[in-house]
Amino acid sequence: MTFNVVVDVAWKEEILDPAGQSTAKVLQQMGYAADNLRIGKQIRFQLQAPDVAQAETAAREMAQRLLANPVMETYAVRVVAE
Amino acid sequence: MTFNVVVDVAWKEEILDPAGQSTAKVLQQMGYAADNLRIGKQIRFQLQAPDVAQAETAAREMAQRLLANPVMETYAVRVVAE
Amino acid sequence: MRVGVISFPGSNCDQDTLSALGALGVEAVPLWYGEKSLAGVDRLVLPGGFSYGDYLRSGALAARAPVMETVERAIRDEAMPVLGICNGFQILCERGLLPGALRPNASGEFLCTWETVRVASVPLGFEGLAAGDLLRMPIAHHEGAFSVEPGGLAPLFQNGQVFLQYSDSVGQVHALTNPNGSVANIAGVSQGSVTGLMPHPERAMADYLGSVDGRKLLRGWLGEGDR
Amino acid sequence: MNYQDVGLTAQEFAMICDKLGRTPNALELGLFGVLWSEHCSYKSSKNLLADLPHEGSAVVQGPGENAGVVRLNDAIHVAFKVESHNHPSYVEPVQGAATGVGGILRDIVAMGARPIALADSLRFGTDAASQSLRHAVVEGVGAYGNAIGIPTVTGEVAYASGYEKNPLVNVMAVGLLPAERPISARGAKPGSYLVLLGQPTGRDGIHGASLLASQDFGEGTEHMRPTVQVGDPFMGKLLMEATLEAVGTGLLDSVQDLGAAGLTSAIAELAYRSEVGATVWLDQVPCREPGMTPYEIMLSETQERMLLVVRPSNMEQIIQIVAHWELPYQVIGVITGEKVLTIATEEDPAAAVVAPDVLAGACPLKPVPQDWAAEVRKTAEISPEFTPLTWEREWGLEVLGSLDCMSRAPIYQRYDSMILTHTVWGPDHSLAVLTVKGVEEGLAVAVRGPGRYAARDAYSGGMAAVARVLALLASQGAVPLGLTDGINAGNPDKESVFRDLMALLAGIGDASRAFGVPVTGGNVSLHNETHGEPIWPTAVIGAVGRHPHPLRPVLDAPETSGLDIVWINPSGDAALGGSVFESLRQETTAYPRPDLARLAETYRVISSVAQSADHLTAIRPVEDGGLFVALSRALLASPPSLGMTVELSADTAASQLFTEVAGQFLVFCPPETAGRLESAFGQWPGAFMRLGRVTGDGTLTIAAKKSVHYGRVELERTYARGYRG
Ligand SMILES: Nc1ncnc2c1ncn2[C@@H]1O[C@H](COP(=O)(O)OP(=O)(O)O)[C@@H](O)[C@H]1O
Ligand SMILES: [Mg+2]
């Protein structure tokens, strides 16, 4: 079975996000007020697995082992059958 | 009222995503099969607005005007009251 | 002495590093990341550059390459001295062979400037360097802000793992001399036989380049002192 | 599809039918559309470019190849060229600028040369949006150059409202190759394979060359925005290494990069230059997207691709190299003896059949008016001269802190300028000085493109651009080896624009002839217009010179007090036309036309002084902002204790401080050198002036009736952050 996986990777709260800051500043200059703006990554891919549980396990492992760096990032994984 | 906004920004399908390609290749070497891996952005912020409709309009505008570059990216906006 | 310099796809300071080591009179051996063995080298350098384009996160993809298993084993079993410069530092952190992580510079931009760094603690095996020494070397990176998990900083200092800190020209370490937002101005750390630093010693090897302090650092790492 | 859809004129279409002896099919029409576009055929500029001097004792390869090549010494040659990526950088500044860098680097690699340096020349508007655009463009230049590991060693930037919707992103690349290496873009032999390396082909940039870069930009072009090309410096690095290693084996017939118009241009030009034909098996081209049509495959401008021409017997060795660098590759065709280019697909083995010399060599060129040569050299209308009668202390700070003069550190610190460890002088100087490993001679690299000087008198501006860049080389005593010119202008179908184009090129030609320096290549970018408003005609001139002692560049700021401060101004004139000072006050007037013979003589003297310079003498060309900015920057680059005191005549002080007439130098030197300069320049009234002395008081003092002081900190702050009033 094919599963669609979405891994959202975000900076931990205490980590400075300069890209987020400068984006917020530009938005402000444009007349919008965006507070606590943070820019994370969204990684999407497809995965073959026998069932959703195994797909989730694999996706979680990938996030844990590569897609996020636990020192500075957190992640959330969503798996949906195609 | 305060709203939490999440803007997912993704490369348009036809746009090359070298970062996604290289990441997929390494996942493969690690023994995972991830197809069509694409790395997009996830932008989160807070917004003050009188109601959800106005929050959405503002968020959509921000996405359109700054957060995504329409020549190469698409976006999706979600707004949730805090 | 044979020193191996491991090139990953996208490494681009490998040639400069090989030349620098060669200029110090050691046998510098280029190693391609795909090779199975470490060719009997005594020491290893992970040079700077953009391994795998710095995609996903700097150093993240190279850190998962099979050769890093071999490196890890050499460190564990033989206490192989390993020096990571810039991208090499990022790879070592990503692999967990050094503490902490390197996040984007506070400016959000790539930064190439000359900096003075102060030796905080001399890592294991270094000769001819002393705490308080000042070295002038260039930095050139986009993700060079050293960071640690909450509570992780004090142990680094206590264990003498903080190698270099960005300072002013007289060795004062303060916010104004922090080019990239590193916690505690940290520019380099060590753990056992592994050392990493963001500045480029291989670019500070001659007066006409602006400084010869890179010689001092590399000689120190080679255990030779600065003759 | 008809001919208008691919940007051809009725006459061009008729000519194609005539040459083919039939009506082209849709695919063929598409091929003609791109190759006969302004961008690929140079139809509006080729006849003008022909007038530039191409010959010189150092020239190995003049225009007509992927890059020019000049001789550094008997062992080492230098390939260099400037390229523009203006339109793409407006549409998507980060990727546009990045792919511009990638593109010019592949041109250098296609010459079999290893790139060693980049230089960028940027133009932006003055409004806030333009400043964000600049931020993104700089991001893009850095993103590619930094990642692929080629230092950006020098560059320039200027601002004017005319560039608001037409920013200019010109990048020059310099590479080295062994003298014995043959020029590689010709030499394809029948029977050899076409091997396509690198990124699989996607729908990127289709029509980028033919339409977008060859038509004016406006609302109407919205629909034909091509898919944005994304640069992949990572693959670019692998491609560069693999190609250079393959070239190094001597086993390749030929190499051609894929740039504008992708496979179409690469194969047609390769076959045309090598005087052969080719058959392309289009189904073999690896594609990134399903269902791509032959038309799309042939026109795609996907980046990071290179075409190698390999004898069957050499394939194995070449493939080994390519495999080591983990690059995708595919044999996509074969060179044929008959001079016909055949595009074959499974369905149609003759999907397109055209002769390379028709496709790549027969586009009708815009005729040049008979009398153009004299016409464009006619003196420009004299605008009323602008001469202030007093001068105010604030004026100096205003000019120093203007967008055009202030520090470029915020830009160049975002570029790796030191990688490869040969940058002796990087972007904190006005030109770059590079060592070349293993030999004594080094390189001086400079780039200049003063658009303001061409705004009212393009002929004068063209001359000034050449004069500017060569002044930098002279200040180092470097021997100019060759020039590359990046021409940027509006829509050439407009008479006024075309006239400016002719004048600009005439100016460049006259100046390069006067200085005896050939132009070995370049680039032309036209249609830089939005809503009918063209940019200033802008000639970006890049120069490489042979530096006699690169490990010891001639100083550009004094290091000891007591030195004389000498101002060389060969024209003796202090007109303000075209200057930054003037532009801050009123609309720019015409730039004074330089006396080229006098300038050439001046540069000879300065160069010889530089070559024999003691370790005290410092030489600095006077550039934007005039003498005041040159003095301030020299002060800021000298040890903190040093100061300068200069004396000017009270009634002409402002003109003297801010004039930007060509050929000025500021020299800090011991009395003997000053004497030598005096005797060399004494013959021309006002050309030599001993202005004052380097002091030990840390301030810049200008005495003209009243004495005015500028503190170091004040100058530093203004230079770094801009004038705050
Ligand atoms: N302004 C110019 N001055 C001199 N030569 C030029 C100029 N513009 C283009 N050329 C020459 O015309 C040839 C074709 O240029 P171009 O199509 O830009 O090459 P490429 O496709 O390899 O980038 C090159 O040899 C180039 O040097
Ligand atoms: Mg080319």
Structural notes for this entry:
The complex is a heterotetramer, with 2 copies of chain A (82 residues), 1 copy of chain C (227 residues) and 1 copy of chain D (725 residues). Chain A is α+β, with helices and mostly antiparallel strands and 82 residues long. Chain A is built from 2 helices and 3 strands, in the order E-H-E-H-E. Chain A has one domain (2-81): Mth169, Chain: A (2-Layer Sandwich), CATH 3.30.1280. Helices cover 34% and strands 41% of the residues of chain A. Chain A has a 3-stranded antiparallel beta sheet with strand order 2-1-3. In chain A, 41% of the residues are buried. Chain C has 227 residues and is of the alpha/beta class. Chain C has one domain (2-221): Rossmann fold, CATH 3.40.50. Helices cover 22% and strands 26% of the residues of chain C. Chain C is globular. Chain C starts with a strand and ends in a 6-residue tail after the last helix. The model of chain C has no long low-confidence stretch (mean pLDDT 96). With 725 residues, chain D is α+β, with helices and mostly antiparallel strands. Among the domains of chain D are: 64-359, Phosphoribosyl-aminoimidazole Synthetase, Chain A, domain 2; 554-725, Phosphoribosyl-aminoimidazole Synthetase, Chain A, domain 2 (Alpha-Beta Complex). Chain D has 24 helices and 28 strands. In chain D, the strands form 5 sheets. Chain D has a 7-stranded mixed beta sheet with strand order 8-10-7-11-9-12-13, sandwiched between helices. A 7-stranded mixed beta sheet of chain D has the order 23-25-22-26-24-27-28, sandwiched between helices. A 6-stranded mixed beta sheet of chain D has the order 1-2-3-6-4-5. In chain D, helix 21 crosses helix 24 (712-721). The radius of gyration of chain D is 26 Å and the shape is globular. Bound molecules: adenosine-5'-diphosphate and magnesium ion (MG). Residues 49, 52, 63-66, 81, 83, 107, 259-260, 485, 487, 519, 521-524 of chain D line the site of adenosine-5'-diphosphate (ADP).
CATH architecture of the domain at 64-359 in chain D: Alpha-Beta Complex
Q: How would you write the strand order of the largest sheet of chain A?
A: 2-1-3
**What CATH first level of the domain at 64-359 in chain D would be assigned?**
Alpha Beta
Rounded radius of gyration of chain A (Å): 16 Å
Largest sheet of chain A: 3 strands, antiparallel
* Hetero compounds: adenosine-5'-diphosphate, magnesium ion
Counting helices, strands and paired strands, the structural category of chain D is alpha+beta
Question: Beta-strand percentage of chain A?
Answer: 35-45%
* Head-to-tail CA distance between termini of chain D: 59 Å
What form of chain A results from the Cα inertia axes?
elongated
Largest interface: A-B, 33 and 33 residues
**Main β-sheet, spatial strand arrangement of chain D:** 8-10-7-11-9-12-13
Please, what is the oligomeric state? Answer: heterotetramer
Total separate domains of chain A: 1
By CATH, the superfamily of chain A comes out as: Phosphoribosylformylglycinamidine synthase subunit PurS
| Alpha carbon gyration radius of chain D | 26 Å
| CATH domain fold name of chain A | Mth169, Chain: A
CATH architecture assignment name of chain A:
2-Layer Sandwich
